[in-house]
Amino acid sequence: MNDAPNIQWIADNNSLAQACQTWQTHSYLGLDTEFIRTNTFYPIPGLIQAGYDDDIVLIDPQAITDWTPLRDIFENHDIVKVMHAASEDLEVFLQLLEILPTPIFDTQLAASFLGTDHCMGYQRLIERLLAINLAKDQTRSNWLARPLTDHQIRYAALDVFYLNRIYPILSNQLKTQHRLEWHKEDCAQLIQSARLKALPDEAWRNVKRAWKLNPRQLAALRAIYAFREQTAKKSDVPRNKVIPIGSLWTLARFQPDSLDQLKRIERMTPVCIRLHGEAILTCIREAQTLPESALPDPLPTPLPSQVKPWIEAIRDYCITQIETLGIARELIPIKYLANGMVREYMTSGEFTVPEMLLETLSNWRKEFLLEGGLIEHLNTLQKQSQE
């Protein structure tokens, strides 16, 4: 391996096709993107970096018109696509190529399974594994400018160059600790999450304080949220440019019926009211006329204070198991698990893992819960509390 990458700039379809033909024979491919996202809904790709070993190519998305060869690479399951903190890059690829690379190996996620800090930045991970300090000065560079500076080109190339260095290190460490399959499951979940993110039909349920709204108000929230999402996508502007997120709950709660009343809603700007006021009022009116059968069910209320000891018991047990495994704490959704299990307990009087909760968990997390003895531990505590 060399100390510096061999860099090739690709700005035509033929060169991309030739590079992709070479990659078809490799077992892995380092991948990264640079993009701009300040005043748009969708990220604007400025650069795609890809490479195997020392050979790094920088692909100009502004110049390529035929992405078929790269799509073929993305769909080749024999080539592992190595990425760091892949979520935003996956969004770029889904928008640009309309498919996602699979399978992927996320180096940030791998580090979490090996006990390092969750969401460790790329520079810190390279420093920890290779004792190399990478510059961070181009993070917010203008990647749409042409030509790119020599400094930008080197910065972008090194991102993939060192990905290719740390991939075998992390992969071998995961194998040694018998966590490679866990990592594969979570990488597959990242891809699935990227697909679902493009269809956020249920995201309105996560609006802060939504549980306080009645079904009719929830219907208004659902309609307003959908309008906000669809309009932002169609106009390619940030969601908050359509309706500020801080206005959603108040709109659903008070349901204004005129432009004058809209002006009294917190954080609603004159521009928002001028551009979208009538459409927002229409969403509210339509929600008000829905039949009862079409209204959403009430959202779960916060758990009562008397179940706090059970929440803490689940949390403490999970933390102990996490520390024994030596993985990052954030890999186990402790709050989600505790809330789901305690709600089930309040309904049935028994500690079980709700089927709906199990359906959202990867296999290794199910094993963590069901084979790790959590339910037995809670049942023991329950018996002790009754004696």
Low confidence ranges = none
CATH superfamily of the largest domain: Ribonuclease H-like superfamily/Ribonuclease H
Distance between termini?
67 Å
| Largest sheet data | 6 strands, mixed
The share of residues in helices is 40-55%
Strand segment count: 6
Q: Can you put this structure into words, describing what you see?
A:
It is a single chain. The protein has 387 residues and is an alpha/beta fold. It folds into three domains: 192 residues, Nucleotidyltransferase, domain 5; 92 residues, DNA polymerase, domain 1 (Orthogonal Bundle); 82 residues, DNA polymerase, domain 1, CATH 1.10.150. 54% of the residues lie in helices and 9% in strands. The chain is built from 17 helices and six strands. The chain has a six-stranded mixed sheet with strand order 1-4-3-2-5-6. A hairpin with a 7-residue loop joins strand 2 and strand 3. The longest helix has 27 residues. The radius of gyration is 25 Å and the shape is flat. The model has no long low-confidence stretch (mean pLDDT 93).
